[in-house]
Amino acid sequence: MEELQPLERISDSEWLLPRHGSMRVPARIYADEATIAQLEEDVQQRAEWNALRQVQHVACLPGIVGAAVALPDIHPGYGFPIGGVGAFDVADGVAVVGGVGFDINCGVRLLATPLVRDDIADEIERLGDDLYRSVPAGLGSEGRLRLTVGEIDRVLREGSGYVVRRGFGVPEELEFLEEGGCMPNADPAAVSPLAKQRQFRQVGTLGSGNHYLEVQAVDEVFDGEAARVYGLEQEQIVVSIHTGSRALGHQIGQDYLKSMAKASRKYEISIPEQELVCAPITSPEGKAYLSAVAAGANCAFANRQMIVHLVREAFARVFGLTGSSVRTVYDIGHNNAKIENHVVDGKSVQVLVHRKGSTRAFGPDREESPAAYRHLGHPVLVGGTMGTASYVLRGTQIGMEKTFGSGIHGAGRALSRKKAAKKFWGETVISDLASTGIRLWAHSKRGVAEEAPGAYKDVERVVRAAADAGINQPVVRLRPLAVIKG
Questions:
Q1: Which of 43, 183, 184, 209 is the most exposed place for a label (fewest CB within 10 A)?
Q2: Can 334 be counted among the known catalytic residues?
């Protein structure tokens, strides 16, 4: 195992791991001093899962350009660190299963309502009960939309558009979804029958783990102009939906770990660890994997779209709101691989950007953003914990230059789920949250313990580090009022 060189401090929130050994590019880490200290301690203690060493390994992969990037919510993942970004030249780079992970296009949909905090104060229990009953959640949960083999293929090709055309949403909101809610290069044939079988009854389900649905209030506005453009204001009630491609995405990851391991040997690719199995982007194996990832991403878009419909029905029952009054602000994922144009060493190049626990955070004037947001950059949706806060940020030009237009996706774990389950007790977490005015509905007490606020980093620190580095800028903070967990 190659030794790590000492990190060089560039600023209070930017650090450089110089290129050395097998590294093809340097690594850049955006984080505060406390996070860096923890990363370095893990190296010294030779922790089995080590995020800093994972960043180094990403920098060793063929075709990587610029730098391997780690963001303030960095923690160990499978191959890539979570909070990691790697961009690869499309001509000689690789597609990496670990660079996307198993929950393909796990992401967040943010909905804005015309209500304010006082409007729902007396109805929060009724609303939470309704959402808990009507939005399927938990391990193995099944949704209202039951699909045939042909219909699941349409979901994989068409994403959110398929669900909208079935009557669960309005066409106008598709503009406010990343990629319009549909990745164009999806191929259902690249997805195994087993993966499809696991998804037949899961469209429109929240799942378990760190997935959630939260009713939140805008707690503070930091950027008045951006908030106005996004349609957000002080005390407004919003809803965040955090989930992904469910069992289908996980099966895609499992399937392609095997085929990409064979491809790594076939193309004689030297990989620093087995979790980074990969194939050339232009190879049949690489193309098949990326087509499967796009199909998984479309499944996640469709999944969130169906849940949006269920949320609108709940708000209609409790508050008499029409569906169109619960508006999509934005929908964006944080486990993806996408071909994009970026400036590297002064030249515009086409690269495959892997974002693992990292969200696209494009700054101003990118055509991929909705027209209404284009002059500012699109919203960046950051989940905190159910006991603290979430954020809406926006991308910046500095972020375009330094992180391939990428941003933080959450607080980032401080404890593994296993350690959290030993440290926290579900019932205690629920009562502690209630004492602060946060109501929690959960399908699993152990799941509550695993997702306890204390299992995560301080989201305020993570957001502050991103802002100090100039890569993402805060727009509003969102405080949870009612939380639905699997």
A1: 184
A2: no
